[in-house]
Write a structure and sequence with these properties.
About 10% of the residues lie in helices and about 40% in strands. The protein contains 1 helix and 12 strands, in the order H-E-E-E-E-E-E-E-E-E-E-E-E. The strands form 2 sheets. Strands 2, 3, 5, 6, 8, 9 and 11 form a 7-stranded mixed beta sheet that branches. Strand 2 and strand 3 form a beta hairpin.
Length: about 190
């Protein structure tokens, strides 16, 4: 290949990369997800997204013991004070051989807002406290990244597609507080 052809190819690759990065930086933040399943669960569209929410759209759970049940293992009983405020639920489907990263940022850094997520079989929309088992569960009651205050969860689907239920919870007494969730899905 001639030098000019190689240079042209390199230039095209650089332009394409720059356009992709610019698109990522301009990602739209949706004020509220749009599809409600009943009054307690919001169904999210597939794929990457960023949206805002508020704990005032949720409610306190009457029982948290599901979380430390050995077939759930979301968080331990001594940490329950991080989850005794209002809970808001979201659901997203992921195909097999996919990972999902979920990031939560509280608008007000003094709000103690926790996040947890668990995977269930495809199409399952069971939410706490009416849940007894899951494939896997992760929780971030305190800041995953102390400097930014961001909380991060990671789940994956290997051989089967999964339904991912995301729970956002306030600490004891916290029934209102704005937050932003960003979801990155990668196959």
């Amino acid at each position: 290949m001639k030098k000019s052809g190689l240079f042209s190819l390199l230039l095209v690759v650089i332009i394409a990369f720059t356009a992709c990065k610019k698109k990522e930086e301009e990602e739209e933040v949706i004020e509220e997800p749009i599809s409600n399943v009943g009054s307690k669960l919001t169904e999210l569209p597939d794929g990457d997204q960023t949206f805002k929410g508020n704990l005032s759209n949720g409610e306190k759970l009457s029982d948290l013991s599901w979380a430390w049940n050995s077939s759930m293992a979301c968080f331990v009983e001594p940490g329950k004070s991080w989850f005794e405020g209002n809970h808001v639920f979201y659901q997203i489907d992921i195909p097999k051989q996919t990972t999902i990263d979920i990031f939560l940022n509280a608008t007000n850094s003094s709000d103690d807002i926790a996040i947890y997520a668990y995977s269930k079989g495809a199409g399952d929309k069971t939410i706490p406290p009416n849940i007894s088992s899951c494939v896997s569960c992760e929780a971030a009651p305190s800041n995953s990244y102390a400097i930014t205050g961001e909380k991060h969860l990671y789940l994956n689907a290997t051989t089967n597609p999964y339904s991912i239920i995301i729970g956002v919870a306030g600490a004891t007494g916290l029934t209102s507080g704005e937050y932003t969730i960003s979801i990155d899905v990668e196959s």
